[in-house]
Fold:
Amino acid sequence: MQIYINGTFYPKEEAKVSVFDHGYLYGDGIYETLRAYDGYVFHLEEHIERLEHSAKLMEITLPLEENGIMKAISDTLAGNGLKDAYIRVSVSRGTGEIGLDPELCPVPTFVIIAKQFVDYPTELYEKGVKIAVVETRRNHPETLNPAIKSTNFLNNIFAKMEAKKAGAFEGIMLNHANFVAEGTISNVFMVKNGELLTPPLIAGILEGVTRGLVIELAEKLEIKVYEEMFSEAALKDADEVFITNTTMEIMPVREVDDKTIGAPGRVTKMLAEAYRQEVLRALKMGIRAD
Ligand code: PDD
Structure:
C-alpha cells in the first residue's frame, strides 16, 4: 500500500507524520472520504469543492488546486492498482511548535490513503439497520461548525460510543434546539405519506454530497422533498427512514431505538435504485479521475 504525503509516496509502514503535527496535537485539520467505482471517483468535484470550503472556513491554504488534487488522487489509485476504492484525503494544519496559533504551521500536511473498497453486507440493505438517537448533541454551529468536515471528530466519537452501547449501526444526534440533525458519519432522511424530509443545513449538519444527490434524484422522480426540521418523535413515527453517505450510499433503517420502522419501503427502494443508475451512468460516461 502506497500512501501519498505532500507529493511523495511512502509504503504504509513508513507513512508517518510528526508528533508535532497540529492534526495530531489539536485535531486541527479537515478531510474527505470518497469512493471510486471501477476507477471512477464518484462526485469527485463535489468532494474537492467541499474540501476547499472546509479549508476556507478553517483558514487553511490548500497546497494544491483542484487539478492538482485530482491528479494526486488518481496517482494514488493508480499507484495502488485500485479500481473500487475507499479514498481518504486528510489535510492538517501542518507541523509546528506546540501552541494553538495556526501561524506556527507554515505547511499543511496533505495525505491520501486509498484502499480496496469493502462492500457493506448485502443483508443490511435488504433488512435495514438499527439506529439510536443518542444523548450527545451535534455541535452548535457557533462552536465547531458541522459544515466543516473537520478531523476534530470527538463529538461524533462520543455519539458513536453511545450508539455502539445501544447495539445500533449508527447514532443520530439532535441539535441544540432538540431537532434531528444527523448521524455520526451520515445524513438522515425520513418518509411520511410518500414525501421525503431531511433536516435543513441550518439544523447544523454537514452538507453531504450523497444528501445533495438524493434530493436531486427525488425531485427527478417527482417525490416531494422538504428540507425541514423534525423531532425525534416524528422520526420514530416515519413510514420509512434511511441514512446516506458516500460509502454506504442509501442505507435503509428498520429500527429507531426500540421503534420498528420495518423493511425498506417503496420510496427508499426507488431512490436506492435511482442512485445505482446514477453511478452506472457516470461510469458509462467514462469520467475518471485520470
Ligand atoms: N462521512 N454527516 C457527517 C457528520 C459525515 O461525517 C458524513 C460523511 C456525512 C455524509 O456526507 P457524504 O454524503 O458527503 O459522504 C454526513 C464520511 C463518509 C466519513 O466520515 O468517512
Notes: The pocket of N-(5'-phosphopyridoxyl)-D-alanine is lined by residues 33, 156, 182, 185-187, 206, 208-211, 244-247 (CB under 6 Å). The first helix runs from residue 22 to 26.
